[in-house]
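Side project, low priority. Logging it here so it doesn't get lost.
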Amino acid sequence: MNILRIAVLAPALLLGACAALVAPPPGGETTATSQPKDDAAVATPMAERPSAPVGTAPLSAPVQDQAAPRSVAASTPAAVTTATAPRGLVQTPAAKPSLPLAGLNMLPGSPATNRQVAALIAPGDLWERIRRGFAMPNLDSDPVRERELWYASRPEYIQRMTERSRKYLFHIVEELELRNMPSELALLPFVESAFNPQAVSSARAAGMWQFMPATGKDFELKQNTFRDDRRDVLASTRAALDYLQKLHGMFGNWHLALAAYNWGEGSVARAIEKNRRAGLATHYLALSMPAETRLYVPKLQAIKNIIAAPQTFSASLPVIDNHPYFQSVAIGRDIDVALAAKLAQVDLDDFKALNPSASRPVILAAGTPQILLPWDNAAIFQTNLQAYGGAQLASWTAWVAPAAMKPADAAKRVGMTEAELRSINQIPLRMVIQSGSTLLVRRSAAVRQDVAENVADNGQLSLRSQPLLMRRTVQAGKNESVASLAKRYDVAPASVAQWNRVAPTAALKAGQRLTLYLPAQSTLLADGAGSSKSRIHRRGKGKAVQVAKR
């Protein structure tokens, strides 16, 4: 009898155990931020986000998203419910997967049950994994249908975006699942930047997630002479998800969190308060907002719909395996970007696509201690790096300007041409390098030390406009020298000597005329009567004007 009871109850016990394995953990969803972008590769910048106004009523009034937890990598679509969902918001139905009981080894002792158990096999296709993680309420509106038509009528554009995304999607999906966030957010870079980590907007928003400079600093994205973490795959994804979690915590609703990512949390909070005071609804569709923000969520919804059912829109998605695309590899020495790509046997453009924060031709190990490489190339890189031996890996280094100087003067000090120094450091014409600025310069064989951490992490290039210089002819006074005349006009003796082909230490004859190049804004005042100091002569109309003592 006991044996029969065990045989009967064994299937039920295993079902109970399996159900416990896939039972959702407690906890709510998290948030991120974003901004609406045009459908071009360079997206519209994120707004600078003002803080929510003090004294604003609690932001829990808008429609609340309920937590939709999933198992990592193998979850099924969870039911998403919303409290009094407004018109246009469609709740995602709960999936009801079935699993055949035949062939399962059951544990004895559990009560019989007909509870269905989700398959524990991870999908081989990343798109399917993303679909299983959809957990945001659907938006059903005319703007969504318009965006669907826009994307569906541009299959080449969809193909370019999705091909570009294959390098980054797996990592983003992994991070979202670890945070228990809806997988729709993995599609947000399609809206922000068309998955182009080098995208820069006219308002200086940069990277896949389009962070503005100030917002990037708020989320610890370093921006200096040598790297911009707003473009970094790992750092920018971490920051974007942190920001989205923060916004979801503020508004309790993913659609409002996305609007805040685009428009700013302060703007969304004020719009909610305005509606609340007027007795109006406070969900996404009810708020008055800019057209760009109004279209932001519909764009994401349209992309979600296409990913969910590409055949409905005659769209073709590239096969993306549910497997990491890249590995992180530690580097201990400064190394040229071209050499790193060569040692990894990776095309240079592909290397830059995985390491887009490295905008210069060298990676400084003290500031960027790791690089990303395609999964199978990481081991190749390490093997080739060891075989490369102790040879110098970097042909560039950092140089800190000891004083304000012209690019031409800086170039002479570091043994480069002015054109090369300007080009590698992106110095425009008629600019002066400020004291303390960090420049990228050629590294000689005599330089053994790599760039120090404080320089690699904090180096900045500061420039100021060079004043427009006008040619002037001056007349030396008694006992005048090149040095004293240069001091009088606040120019370098070497410059006076070069302009007039004399020695910097030469003495001048009284009345001797010399050519100077002085700022156009200089005010030339008359000397006192009887002064024997030098006079200045203008070319062109007008009389000569004496120059006052300094």
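Brief comment: The first strand starts at residue 89 and ends at 90.
Revisit when time allows.
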